[in-house]
Amino acid sequence: RKEVEQDPGPFNVPEGATVAFNCTYSNSASQSFFWYRQDCRKEPKLLMSVYSSGNEDGRFTAQLNRASQYISLLIRDSKLSDSATYLCVVTPNTNAGKSTFGDGTTLTVKP
Amino acid sequence: NAGVTQTPKFQVLKTGQSMTLQCAQDMNHEYMSWYRQDPGMGLRLIHYSVGAGITDQGEVPNGYNVSRSTTEDFPLRLLSAAPSQTSVYFCASSSPGRPKETQYFGPGTRLLVL
Residue B101's pLDDT band (boundaries 50, 70, 90)? Predict the structure, then answer.
């Protein structure tokens, strides 16, 4: 079993749709959680950190359930520019240099 | 700030050749990491460093060597290239001491081993 598992996708949605991505992790000692966005053949970039209380940034909402070892990302009112691969990232302690990445979920938003 | 820079952008090697992938950051970050990304997969950690003179292995270290003589630079050496090392290599840096560190990635080096 992989340490971080994501919905394989791909997700193909129309503009304006709401889409949710799920991620589970196996290391219960994990302390920090992130969603990164990766555009085709580019480097990953931080989308948002994920907090236990849940957090929102505009159209994006991230949730963490430590008991179930589950992370989610909700995108509302999808835009064409949201098309990308979304990577779930888990860190065992405060050393971000030891992060474990999921394989990513690809989202395509169509007109 | 240039952020994280990587050279070269592309490289073709023959099996058995050696080479060094360069990575530099100008943000005074203590942590630096090397990842590889194969098609359709996430990033896998090769080696990482928590400061100058300190390195450790990640998930897939075999066939790679690193050193960290300065805070700014973290080169990755391929000792004897194999076709299985064909991949995209990303270098990243981050700073400790905050609850939620962000990793900043370089643009990547695309390596093809024939």
Answer: low
